[in-house]
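Weekly puzzle thread! Below is a chain. First person to post its structure in token form gets bragging rights.
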Amino acid sequence: MMQSGLLTWTSLLPVLIIFSSMIPGLLIFATPEKSVKRRTALNLGGITIKLCLVALMLAGVSQGLEFRFVLTFLPGADLVLQGDALSLQFITLSSVLWLATTVYAIGYLEGSPLRSRFFGYFSLCVSATVGIALAGNLITFLLFYELLTLATFPLVVHRGTPQALSAGRIYLAYTLGGGTLVLMGVALLHSQIGTPEFTPGGYLGGFSPDMTVSLVVAFVLLIAGLGVKAALMPLHSWLPKAMVAPAPVSALLHAVAVVKAGAFGIIRVVYDVYGIEASQSLGLTQPLLWLASATIIYGSVQALRQREIKRRLAFSTISQVSYITLGVAMAGPIAAVGAIVHLVHQGLMKITLFFCAGNFAETLGIHTVQEMDGVGRRMPWTMATFTVGALGMIGIPPVAGFISKWYLGMGAMESGNDWVLLILIGSSLLNAAYFLPLLYRGWFAAAPHGGWAENNFTNRRLETHWMLLLPPLLTALLSLLAGIFAGSVISPLGWTEFIVSREFSP
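Winning reply:
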């Protein structure tokens, strides 16, 4: 039962945000395959409601309102949902990209079997992701973290091919193993200090010296468990294998839910559980910085070796998401801005790239780098959005990726980690090495003499299905606007500066 007395709209709003995708998802499961209009209405209706509720919470948090729901769950460990500035950063990203991915998936899966099952699990996936963002303590976080694993698995194996089933088994083994490590870390931490709510600056305070070993072990367990979903080296192998899933699922894994959930969890543990001071005094930030740096370079080198477009993008994600961990580990406010804003910027750019990869595959049967020759002439809009996403990943202004890397670079100098600049420069050069050949082939190489393996949608006015084209156009535009208007108060950067001012306030 509720610990507090009366339910108010501020306490109910976090619950309603989760239910706005969960209830439509459950109803979609019961929707017959042939009821396309009903399924589409449930999808788009849930998205519309969620966006309105998130906008309401954004307005409230900016005005200093507190959104908090508490339910008695375990002795000394309540189920807590709370909307703060950091959680809203992740919720807003997930909600907007849910809209884009749902529209894309409707077009992508047109005429395919098992659509009700797909969209049902898709909605549950988003619900779990939003629950992770709204979690007010580690117990609540863990519950939604595991729910995300279970909801995502059917999407990975959706096609039912031997390759998909194999990838699903690997995914499940990694993520359930990671969840077990998080559980062990939470249990150990709970035994030492209980399960307080997430607090800006952390809640360890002046911990007793005899707790040092336990706190270090708990931190290692938590980061290792979260590092599975965040694809930190050497826990990343599941991610490239999961690329056998349909393009909307790849977009979900990389930009909306799974990988982002791991990175978000690392932010919570370092900033709102341990806190910067305790993390540094325990000697935890420097090893985390080395691990993130190694993952950034490793992911970029591996991406350069891939010939399949989706696998190249997968290794790119391994590298790019580690920028978030890198910024967190530098333990300074400027680096923190770069880390947290990259949560948004990377999501916008990477989902654009996966949408485009799906368009190339569905329209022309393009799956490898070599097959991209001349595609820009046949699909100029898709290739233009792919270009925006690729240039953003490299860090070319005015795309949003430049803003992230700029702040991470300044944060490296502020925190005295000048060597990190070499990591950032080296990574950007590697990004250019594996993205620019794709752009050259797409825009300047001659189209294959015999045409492409497929040539669908030739009888339509647009280069491909409009529901496949509109989402990457939207996300590419947002990637540009986030960079061009970075100085605006309402930009992702402006909101991130608001978050960091609270995390690092005296």
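Puzzle host: Confirmed. Bonus trivia for everyone else. The beta strands are 67-74, 77-83.
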